[in-house]
Amino acid sequence: MRSGDILVERANTLELVGTAAMYQGHENYAIFPDLMVRVRPSPKAVEPRYLLEFLRHTPTRSYYRGNARGTSGSMPKISQSIIKNTPVPVASRAAQQHCSDAFRRVDAKLRGEYAKRSALRASFDSLLHNLMTGKIRVTPTGMDLESKTHLVRPIGGDRMEEDT
Question: Which of the 8 DSSP states describes residue 28?
Answer without folding.
Answer: T
